[in-house]
Amino acid sequence: MRLNRSFLSAILVFLLAAPLTVSFCGQEVRDGWVPVVAKKAQRFYKLSSGGTTLLSEELGIFLRNSDGSTYTRAIPVGGTATTWNAEATLEDARDGKTYAIDYQHRRATVIQRPEPGTVLPLNPPTGEDYQARSPDLSLGSKIIGGVECVGWKVVERGPHNPGGEIWVAPSLSYLIVESKIVDKGHDAFIDMVLEDIHGGKEPDPQFFHIPEGFKVVE
Fold first, then answer.
1. Which of 29, 51, 68, 91 shows its CA 20 to 30 Å from the CA of 115?
2. Does residue 217 or residue 134 have the better pLDDT?
3. 5-217 falls under which CATH superfamily?
4. Beta-carbon contacts of residue 35 (< 8 Å; ≥ 6 apart)
5. CB–CB of 168/175 below 8 Å?
6. pTM across the whole model
């Protein structure tokens, strides 16, 4: 089975960004983005009437710079997917676009664009959106990767709005540290967690630019 990583990346980008966009225009005072260097582990499952099938288990890196741009790249360590492209995902806070960077074919494909009216460059989210949610959706707090996090349920609202739960770190500009996402519309379940988290550490800037000579596919 071939693992469509661009599709799966798009699911994660859409869901993990959506709860935060509301707070961009809020009134709460924001600090700047806290840069982060961390290890990332995630598993992609196929849902069926017979249960779940592990498509891919991946380990890699998560980087965020002080501009708010993020870079992730992982390699497969398990699962049934038989085809793999050497891809990374770059979320560029300067233009609001998300790119799937294919190192094998030397191209960067835009997989998500900013919503109309989005203020660029992107600002750090605040706690207003989470605090405005019903208390029934709160999952409390816990320590993940040495960082205190607060959790929220994400209610599924149709086939294009997956549900599940997310855990964010207020001290790291509300970075999503752990998520468990169920996308019934695509029969998918995605489990992600960040580990060995280093807040305040600025990553190498080379990761936040499309490599020279790569074709950009809009």
1. 29
2. 217
3. Lipoprotein localisation LolA/LolB/LppX (2.50.20.10)
4. 64, 65, 66, 199, 200, 201, 202, 203
5. yes
6. 0.81
